[in-house]
Amino acid sequence: AQSVTQLGSHVSVSEGALVLLRCNYSSSVPPYLFWYVQYPNQGLQLLLKYTSAATLVKGINGFEAEFKKSETSFHLTKPSAHMSDAAEYFCAVSEGGWSGGSNYKLTFGKGTLLTVNP
Amino acid sequence: DAGVIQSPRHEVTEMGQEVTLRCKPISGHNSLFWYRQTMMRGLELLIYFNNNVPIDDSGMPEDRFSAKMPNASFSTLKIQPSEPRDSAVYFCASSWRLGNTGELFFGEGSRLTVL
After folding, report:
1. Which end of chain A has the lower number of beta carbons within 10 A, N or C?
2. How far is B102 from B41, CA to CA, in rounded Å?
């Protein structure tokens, strides 16, 4: 069964500082991995995804994530935080693409709330 | 193209009342998902449909919850009777092809408060 662990339910950074949000996954097959962002009172929006191509994935708003199979990790980073990055971030894993496409589930982590201080 | 559309955005009701949440997926998408989000449990998958057929409803908490997808452009999630512990934000999401990368497109959610 697939699962996702996000370390740290709340991360606080200063504007301009590095953002690092941690995600570790468990999967019985090579996974597809995702980061979603949720702004207050909105649905989830896709930031970026790993689908077995390049291990370093670039997403929107300057975010990127690196897939490390040996560490079963998919941490999200951004070199310089903006106030507008304040939101909740969710890591998610899917196994469906590798199972012949018969079905899939997207399993989410508990989320990490990012606060950006001026 | 319009995104996933959910209604109502907010619903306040009293315990015991029936609640119906509605979802219109993105046109052309053939997979639809209902998630529930609470502070305690995070995002939970309730049910998902492929080509209007329920594939997995193992996340539906109990018989008070039911979901239907009568056609490719409409789905409902019904709670009858509602209880205070059902208070949550309910998200509908759709995807264009099962077996794709798994990327989902979410609606803005329906915030349910049961008094």
Report:
1. C
2. 22
